[in-house]
Each structure stands twice: as structure tokens, then as C-alpha cells.
Queue: 4 jobs
Job 1
Amino acid sequence: MAANTNPLALFCPQSATVYLDQQAAQAALDQYGDFSPSYLLATAWSEAAQTAVGSTLSGENRVLYNDCFVGVWAGSLPVEFDAERGLTVSPGDLDEAVATAILLADDTADQDVRGDSFSKVDAFRVGVLGGITGCDDSFA
């Protein structure tokens, strides 16, 4: 498993539980919008998925794959309200996702732990536009 690279939401493999820092999620909601806490949770669920399939990715590449997988999820959401699914995505939500990706980025480009802002936004974009195949081609 990757190091704790997103302290705002994390996956604990021992208990198979995703945890969310509710105060941080509320602050992200207030500052960036309603898709921000969703992005935080989705990165932790992406880590859970990588753990479940025995991914051997590590470090920055693993974290960027999580960002890409969040993009896959966001890209799968309907644009118009779907009563059955209950969730939709709007252009504003994608802006909120980008802001959250930047929030979670390495402080400097030479850290190579979580990915710099450009890498995280690019990974998310690859997932939205290229789906899981795009993520696999870019990070696996």
C-alpha cells in the first residue's frame, strides 16, 4: 500500500475501511464546492481498488493512478439528472475536482510523493477522457 498520501481520506486495508476527515471535507466543500469531498473519498476508494486487485504500483505512480481512476469515475457520471443513479456531473464539478487535485499535490515539483499539480490534473483528465484503458496505458 502507498504511504499515507492523502491524510484527508484514506483506506485502511486491515479493516477494509475508508476514513474521511470530516472537518477537512467540510472545509473543502466550503472552499471548492460539492465535488471536492467526493474527490477526496474517491481517491481512498481508488486505493482500496488497487489493494483489492493486488496492484504492484508504488509511490507517485500509484497515487497518480488513483487520481486517474477518480477521473474514470467522474467521467462515468451522467451529465443530466438520472433518478436511478442520483448523481450527476457538471462542468463546475470538474473545476472543483481540479482544485482538489491541486490541494492534494506535492508542495514542490521535486518531492515525487503525491505528484505535482500538473501531473495530478493530467492524471484526472486522462481518466475522464480515456477511461480505465487510458489509466492503464499511462500509469500501470
Note: The first helix runs from residue 22 to 32.
Job 2
Amino acid sequence: MIPWENIDQSKIPGSQELITLQRRGEEYSIRTAGTELMNSRQHGSEDALATLTLDSITQVSNIQVLVGGLGMGYTLASALKISKPDASIVVSELIPAIVKWNKTHLGHLAGRPMDDPRVKIQICDIAKIISKSTAKWDAILLDVDNGPEGLTQKANDRLYSTVGLNKAFNALRAGGTLAIWSCDPNPKFTLRLKQCGFITKPHTVRARKSQKGSKHVIWIAQKKVSI
């Protein structure tokens, strides 16, 4: 077995925890506090986050998409494959090291999606972008932390609170979609989405495209169109 090699590490903003990039042969892993956050061989659910969301809105021209969490670029790459040339995709990434690693070590994995002219990268808290937006986005995709239960950043919990979900609702255009990735199911969170006015359904997807590996959950929550 080839041993893991530490490539780089960095502090998580607002925390004393370290986030680490590791490599084993052609396989890459990003970890914190002994927990693997993402792996280059298991990105089926990250791909599904984009496809489940954008398949329903690609008929719209000039779509505006906000992605929370760059990761290894797989969600962004999948969104670009589906989107038309006139689409605009903003990626908000809180950890500067993640952006750096995509430029220096990881970009080839997903086909260097950050180089696409439709993409704009912002190193910031996505909650701030959402709070400042009113009926702006056709889709908001959240792959932040491990889902509604924050792991690397407890402040991420505010994205998934009733207050945070109401802000996301206001940031979406009528008929827009909020999509949320999670490592685990959470029935209480499904109820919370509905209470905030979303038409929502959780989808269970596999970590690997081969339909093997661990199961993850993606909530597809649509903003009701007022009549």
C-alpha cells in the first residue's frame, strides 16, 4: 500500500484547526482533525449536486448560479458541463488554501474548471453573499462543511438555521433552487426547509459514480412561484 504524503496544510479561518492536502499515488485527499472531507476518487455526490440542481433550469437564459465550497472542483465542473455559454457561476470559498491547491495541485482532476470564463471565484463567506442578495440567483448550491451539522466551521450552522434558510429563500429568484449536500440524512432539516417555504425533496446518492461507496444526501429545495 502506498503511504499518504502530506502536500500542504493551512489553518481554517476563524479556527485553530488545520486543513491538510494529502496524496497517495494519483489519489488526493483533503482532511481536518483526522476526518476526510473529500477524496478525488469519491466525487459522485458532488457531481450530482450540480446535475440534480441545474437539469431543471438550463432552459433559462443567463442563469446566475452561486456555489458555496470549491472543494476539488467537481461540482463546479459538472455545473459548467450543463450550463449554457451565457451562464454565470460564482464560487464562494472560505479557505484560501483550497483555491491555491486547485491552482497548483488539484485543477487537473476536474479539468481545470476555474479557468472557464463563466466562473468567478470569491474568497469569502457565502453567508455574506446570500445576505446581500435579493431575488438574484437561479440556483444556490451549498457544499459547505459536512452538511447541516457543521464540522470545520461552527459558524456554518447559520446557513442552515431558520434565519439562514430564509435569507437563501430571499436571495433566490422565483422558482429558483437551493441545493444542499450532506454526509448524513436529517429529517428535522427537511422539515425546516418546508417551514421556510421551500418545496423540497432529499435525494440519496452514492459517493462513487459506480454507485458504490458511502451514501450522501442532497436536498433539492425550490422557491415557490407566487401566483
Note: The radius of gyration is 17 Å.
Job 3
Amino acid sequence: MARCAIYNTEDTMEQLRLFLRLYHQPLRAMSDLLDHGSLAAALIGGLAVALASAIPMMFASWRGVGLGAAVLILLPVAMLIVIRWDRLGGAGVVFRRDYVPAAVCVLMAWAACYLPLAAARLLRVFVPDPVAIVVFAYFLFLSAAALRTVMGTGFLHAGIALAAGLFAAMAVRLFPGPGMYLFSPFYLFFAYRLFATDIELTLQGLGSRQRLKRQLEAAAINPRDGDAQFQLGLIYQQRRNYAAAIPHFEKAVAIDPSEAGPHFELGRIAREQQRLNDARAHFEKAAAIDNKHSSSEVLREFGATSLALSRPEEALGALEVFCQRRPFDPEGQYWYGMTLRRLNREQEARQAFQAAVEAVDTAPGHRRRQVSGWKSLAEKELRMTGGG
């Protein structure tokens, strides 16, 4: 009994620390919630604040959103939009993997934002509308950070998706109709019986992530296990927590300098952070180790980075080889065309841009949605020279 009490106390304190971190380190808090958060603690905290604040559970407007609306309408709608927009794969698979982790983050964020309003109500302190709007805006920011961390999207996509989710939640309130009956215990019970397997798999999503993370951390204790360091780096990179990812990739390099993967990922991070010289150096090292790494994408990234650094001759060599190996990669053809244009080889550049367009048009449906942006960019370049 004593050991159980100690465990529960320590676990409660850990959840409280995660909760308080939302106020001063929100981005780090979202990453930590994925590793140590608890659905039970998030639900209890959210319900306690909801009861104390007297905000209707399904309430949604420009001044605030209820707990139920946040996790049952706003979050699922936003996730569906991100899945479609970022082309993350099948909605069912992504939901089973990401919904509960995202819900834990959103529940904690909701409780953290509305706790001051709940305290004000209990103390009978009047809260003006501008304050409520600021609180709501901070909740949307934290929710965007949650989607960014869990699904690897950007703040812009997350923000627009949440705006759509908010409209959906408001529509349910303003035009309830028969849709509100779906939230009755009767319908919820039969929905659970119908989708019991999917719901159980979804509930396991957070636990699976946390178990994998713990196993990798245990393996990383071995000073010679570079792969564990690399996999931990990939986890943090997917969350866009680059400050945590970089040290793991650097440790992987130190353990095994002959692996191209850590150099390649360090280059990708550096390029996204606009540290182009660092990115070029990492891509160059990765290509020297294995120029076919990641289906030769190391050459494409090296070429695009070299072009951004005004080294078109250097970029040309890498991109020529890449396009020979993967002629139907529209991104590679686009960068190849841009490099040729920089070298005043206009006719060849137009051919490369046309190849990028054709690569998208002939791609399978799921692939076409992923690479359609490169077709738009290539068509723009063709129009600029009268070749489109």
C-alpha cells in the first residue's frame, strides 16, 4: 500500500508539473505530454475546471469553447483537415495513432487556459469579455502547438484547421438539429459497441508511443547504440522539437560516423532553420558516405541547398545524377530546372519543368496529392518564359 501511495503521489506530481509547464514552456510541454501525459489526468483536470467555470460543455463561440466541443468536434475536424492538407495517409490509421495523444494535449491546454476563469468565478470576480477572448486565443495557440507536435504539421496549417473546427463546433450549437442527439448516452453506447475495436486501438495510441519512447531511452543508455540515438532523434524531429532532436543525431554521428542517416537528418533540420552552410556540410558528408541514401534524396537536398547558396555548378552535378536515377520525382526536376535556369540554359530548364509537371500528372492518386505543389511551381516557371 505504501509503495502504491508513493507511486500515485509521484505520478500526480508529474502530471501537475506538465500542467504548469503549459504556462511558461508551452511547446516543450506538448512534447513532454506525449511522453508522460495521462488521459485520465487530463480528463479529470478538464472536467474539474469545466465544473468550476460553469462553461457549458458544448459551448462554442468566438469568446470560448466548451470542453466537449473541444475534444469531440473542434479537434477531430482539425485533424481531418491536417491529414488531408499534409497528406499524412489514411484518416483511420492516423486517427488511431494520433487522436488520444492530441486529445490529452488539448484537454490539458483547455484546463490550463480556463483555470483562471474558474478561479475568478469561485472568487466572484467579474471577467470582462476582452479577457475571455484573450484566454480563448491562448487556448487556440496551445491547440495549434498540440497539432504541430503530435502530427508534425506547421503552425499555419494547424491554425487554419482549428478555425474550421471552431466553425463546426459553433454550427452544432447554432444549428443543433438532430446532430445533438448523437451526444446522448444512448447513441454513444451503440457507437462504442459498433466501433469497439477501433476505439480500443485509438485508446492505445498514447501508451504505444510512450512505451516505444521508454524502450529507446533504455537502449540509448548503451554508449555504443547509435541506432537508438538516431530513432530518438527522429521522434523529436517529427514533433518539430529540433532542440531535442539535434543532440541525439549528433550522438549517433559520434558513435558511428559511417552512418549517412544522422548527417542527412541534421542537414534537413539545418536547411529548415535556414542554416544553409551547415545543411550543405551535412548533406555533403551524408552523400560521401552513401549517395544513394534515402532513395538518393541526399543528392536532391544537397543540390537544392547548394543552389540556395549560389553554387549552381555544384548543384548541377548532384541534381543531374538524382534525376537520372529518379526521373519521375517532380521536386528533383523542379530544382534541376531552377539550376539550369541559373546557368542560362533556358531550353533545358523548360524541359526539366515540363518533366516535373508530367511527373505529377502521371503519379498515382495518393502520390499526386503529395507532390502537387511542385507542379504548381513548375508551371509558374514555364509561364514566366512562355513555355506553359
Note: The radius of gyration is 24 Å.
Job 4
Amino acid sequence: MRKKGLLSMLVLTLGLSLFVLGCGRGTDQGLNHQANKPTDQQQYGTPDSIIIATGGTSGTYYSLGAGIAKIFTEKAQVNASVQSTSNSIENMRVIKKRQVDLALTKGDIADYASKGVNMFKESGAIKNLKVIASLYNETIQIVVAKNSTIRTIQDLKGKRVAIGAFNSGIEANAEQLLEIYGIKFSDLGKTEYLDFGEASSHLQDGSIDAAFITAPAPIAAVNELAITKGIRIIGLDAEHMKQLIQKYPYYVEQPILKGTYPGFDQEVQTVAVKTQLVARSELDEAMVYHLTKTLFENLDQMKKIQKQAEQIKLETALEGVSLELHSGAVKYYQEKGIKK
């Protein structure tokens, strides 16, 4: 009788253990799976499917990510889906938690994340981050009204300047560009934390004198301002651009061509950061090689899906890359003779 009771208890205990284990192996690979813990499948290098962190559903990152996911699914035979997020910063954090496999991000944000600086200072460095490729330029645009007396970056001293949202990538871009010219935020007359739309409105009514904007040119908010008020964009000289890129290698040179905006009749030299496709480092080399190869061998299809894909080129895939490449991407670039 005692043996039977003991046996029954053992069976019950085993059953409960299996039940708990089964509940713990969640299948949700999105941003809200239980306790924010990666599933077993995500921890491995070759998951059955991959998730790409993108951006808001109305933005470029989301549509571009959807195009990449479509190509991976159809051409690489890897089931891929996209996850909408708020921005590049969040994308780095979900890579860290292994809640996604790939992500779109600005190259400067990836650099800050890997070092645990700027907006990642409190949360710490993200160590499982590797780059697959640079995709397209996000241009640093210092916008002023067409009739403004501001002609150079030095002229920003004492002026009212919008520097992006607080603790944002644009704020860091503004600080770094000014730094190269020996200017601090405290040298400005006033700093305003404004997004694209707000900055454009404030330039329109004259409540600010200039605005830093980081986005592919042309951007709608600046285009509208060019039509209603007229704009100029403050350029960088060659020597300061060189110094900037040497100190912060995620920047690349970028001209803003005549005709980019209505009434914009003179080419201006500035810099850009690259939108990059990055991966969590745990992904298997063979899988990342396969995905990298698939991406670059299907660019014609990508261009039909998203306009920014027109900028994606194999020969510029390593521009603005300041972090370590994933070994799978390295293998593909070596085959193609592409060197940083």
C-alpha cells in the first residue's frame, strides 16, 4: 500500500514538472512574450523563423523591413516576419533581449548601443550586436529660413536651435557636429528639443532660427517649409567633415543636390549616418551568409517594394560601419571582394 502511494506521488510530481516545462517554453517570439525571456528557439543560431525589428507602421523602416522579410521568405526559404517598434533605440534593446533576430537601425545608434553610451548609458552596452550591411543614407540637415543671416555652422552661436527630441540620435548628431567646430550647446542662444514636424512649424513662425534634422532627403516637413517660406541648408567644409568622420566613423559624406527641395538651387555638402541591417550575434554563420547573399542578389525586387532600396548597393554595404560584422556577412563580402 505504501509502495503504491509512493509510486502515485512520483507520477504526479513528474506530470506537474512536465506541465510547468511545457508552459515555460512559450512560442511567442514578439516583443511581449512572457517575462521578456528569449525562447529556446531564439537562443539557437538557426531558428525556424526570424523576426525583423523595424519601426512605426507608417514609416520607411516598416515598409523596407517588410520587403526584406518577403524576399527572405520567398527566395531564401526562411520564414521571416516584421515587428513594429518605436525607433532604432528600441530595436537595439530587443536585439539585446533576443526577442528579435534582425533589426533596422541607424549606424550611430548601433555604435552607442555597443559601447553603452548616450541613450544606452544607464541600461549598459549591448554585446550581442553584429552588422550585416549598411543600406541607405539618413542625411544630417541643418535647416534655416531662406532669408536667415546664418550662413555657416559658426553662425549658430547665440541662435535658437532645435536639436531633435531629448536624448535622441539627432541630439547626439547636433552635439558632435558642433563639437568639431568648437561649439557647445551652451554657446547657442537657446536649445529646443523638437521633432521634425515641430521644428518645421517653429521655423515657419520664426520662433527658432535653425533646426537639426536627420532623415533621408527630401523629407516632407522640410519640403513643405521650402514651399511656404523657403529654406537653405547649412553645409560643412571638407576639413571639418574629414575630422568628424575620423572621430566618428559611422558618418559618411553626403551632398544634398540642387532641386532636392523646391527653390533649393545650390548643392550643399553635409554628412549622413547609414541605416543598417544588424543581427544578434547568436545567429548561425551559415544562416546570416544565406540571408546576406539573398538580400544583395534580389535588389531589383527590393526597389519595386520601397524607394529607399534604390540606395542599397553591394559596393557601399560597408560604408559607415563602425562595429564588427557578423561572420556570415564577412564570408559573403569576401567572396565578392568587398572590403571595408
Note: The beta strands are 49-53, 79-83, 102-106, 129-145, 160-162, 190-192, 210-215, 231-233, 251-256, 268-280.
